């Protein structure tokens, strides 16, 4: 096992990894930017090194500075958390060339799955349903027009190097397809330095359901069940839950097995997530793989009893998974609310600043993953998520009641948070009935 690990991240996920290391008896080294200097969670690490100014590009995204800190601290491995360098195959390659283990999938799998048209090819090779659309990267407008007429409008133009909704465009006819292609290519070139685009049939009001995967270096690839992440706003997830409400068991099982086949096909190991869109008839279609630990991993931890961060570390150290698929038993229902420092009354504008009052909820079934407390100043430089409120109960009905109670207890002053939005969601009849899709928030809650 590793003796010392560096956490190349900040905030709640840095603390999440620090806690896992402590329990495993592994020394843990944190890094911080000038904006995070003095943050209380850094005191919980065995050491902490400043890696640069507030701007992420020159600190949390700067490979040279992070590797320098890792060399000075003499660590054997780096945990990248989520975001920042977590899905950067070049970073993984640099780590390994410096004889530092990257705690994540092999760079080959990251490279292949990071390209969305290649990921679609892997899915098809594994017999996993993909959304009808381009067989590969679009060659020209002519091919796009021909395909769009075959699959039928509306179609969605996506960037091969994209993901997470960046650079997507809906087209309803030949004209808007042609203008959309030009815009999408320009956007993709500017954002990813790769203008490659492809098209898919545009699914209206789909659900977003994803499958958690965990695999070791010895060919053992398991799924840990699914999460419904349909409740999102502007491609930012807001609420996640498991199991996915109302998903038929045979659909769930087929989707989970499809995810395992896809991961095997790509030579994957460590933790990862296979994302699907699910239509009204519960047809499921692969869209992309997230080659990292995800923000919403705690709900899977609650229902499986597995500590995903510890398993990531053990797998990276060369351990074999000591359990098989039949040993994984998902029990109960878990829900997560992301607590963002944003003002719901001002179009969700970020609300950084000093937290003057912080009264967190507690009690049976409540887990709060956060690095903040009263007196902490939320910096303006980073993502606005400051906490994750997770509940775990035997049934979804009880989990919803617990979340409502926990949201009522939660009291924050000094900054604005999206807790009022969560209170609305958990009082909404459609949500309580499990009637969720990716348009839920804009249809039901933002028309005020
Ligand atoms: C789609 C789609 C409808 N049809 N693809 C957005 C993020 C990226 N991961 C894929 N996304 C979508 N792809 C087809 N063919 C609708 C979305 C989408 C979405 C997906 C998941 C969660 C929230 C979403 C919000 C808007 C659009």
Strand order within the widest sheet?
Answer: 13-12-9-10-11-14-21-19
Q: Ranges with pLDDT <50 over ≥5 residues?
A: none
Specify Rg, calculated over alpha carbons.
22 Å
Q: What percentage of the residues does DSSP assign to strands (E)?
A: 25-35%
Classification by helices and strands: alpha+beta
Mean pLDDT: 97
Describe the structure.
Helix 3 packs antiparallel against helix 4. The chain is an alpha+beta fold. The termini are far apart. It has helices at residues 11-24, 63-73, 89-97, 107-114, 116-125, 141-151, 174-192, 249-265, 297-304, 308-316, 396-409, 419-425, 429-432, 440-444, and strands at 4-7, 27-33, 47-52, 77-79, 101-102, 155-159, 169-171, 197-201, 207-215, 221-233, 236-242, 270-278, 284-290, 333-340, 342-343, 349-350, 353-354, 357-359, 366-370, 377-378, 385-393, 411-413. Ligand MV4 binds at residues 131, 156, 163-165, 200-203, 206, 208, 232, 235, 277, 287-288, 438.
Question: Could you give a quick summary of the protein structure above?
Answer:
The chain is 33% helix and 26% strand. It is an alpha+beta fold and 448 residues long. Helix 6 packs across helix 7.
């Amino acid at each position: 096992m590793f003796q010392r690990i560096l956490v190349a991240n900040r905030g709640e996920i840095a603390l999440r990894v620090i806690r896992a290391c402590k329990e495993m008896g592994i020394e843990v080294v944190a890094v911080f930017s000038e904006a995070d200097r003095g943050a209380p969670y850094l005191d919980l690490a065995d050491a902490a090194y400043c890696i640069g100014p507030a701007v992420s590009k020159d600190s949390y995204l700067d490979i040279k500075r992070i590797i320098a800190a890792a060399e000075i601290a003499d660590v054997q491995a780096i945990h990248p958390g989520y975001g920042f360098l977590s899905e950067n195959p070049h970073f993984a390659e640099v780590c390994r060339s410096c004889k530092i283990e990257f705690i994540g999938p092999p760079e080959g799998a990251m490279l292949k799955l990071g390209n969305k048209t290649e990921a679609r090819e892997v899915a098809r090779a594994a017999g996993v349903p993909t959304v009808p659309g381009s067989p590969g990267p679009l060659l020209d407008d002519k091919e796009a027009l021909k395909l769009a007429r075959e699959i039928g409008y509306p179609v969605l133009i996506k960037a091969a190097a994209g993901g997470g909704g960046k650079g997507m465009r809906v087209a309803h006819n030949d004209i808007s397809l042609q203008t959309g292609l030009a815009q999408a290519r320009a956007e993709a070139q500017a954002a990813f330095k790769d203008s490659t685009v492809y098209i898919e049939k545009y699914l209206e009001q789909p659900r977003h359901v994803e499958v958690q995967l965990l695999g070791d270096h010895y060919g053992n690839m398991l799924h840990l069940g699914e999460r419904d992440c349909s409740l999102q706003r502007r491609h930012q997830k807001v609420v996640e839950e498991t199991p996915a409400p109302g998903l038929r068991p045979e659909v769930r099982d087929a989707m989970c097995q499809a995810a395992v086949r896809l991961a095997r096909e790509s030579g994957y190991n460590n933790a990862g997530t296979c994302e699907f869109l699910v239509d009204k008839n519960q047809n499921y279609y692969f869209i992309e793989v997230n080659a990292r630990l995800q923000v919403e991993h705690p709900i899977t931890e609650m229902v499986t009893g597995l500590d995903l961060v510890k398993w990531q570390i053990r797998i990276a150290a060369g351990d074999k998974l000591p359990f098989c698929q039949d040993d994984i038993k998902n029990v109960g229902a878990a829900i997560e609310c992301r607590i963002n420092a944003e003002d719901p009354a001002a179009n969700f504008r970020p609300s950084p600043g000093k937290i003057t009052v912080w009264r967190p909820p507690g009690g049976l079934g409540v887990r709060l993953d956060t690095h903040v407390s009263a007196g902490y100043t939320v910096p303006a430089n980073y993502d606005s998520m400051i906490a994750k409120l997770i509940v775990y109960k035997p049934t979804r009905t009880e989990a919803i009641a617990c979340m409502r109670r926990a949201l009522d207890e939660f009291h924050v002053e000094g900054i604005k948070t999206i807790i009022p939005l969560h209170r609305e969601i958990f009082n909404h009849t459609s949500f309580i009935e499990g009637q969720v899709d990716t348009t839920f928030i804009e249809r039901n809650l933002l028309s005020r």
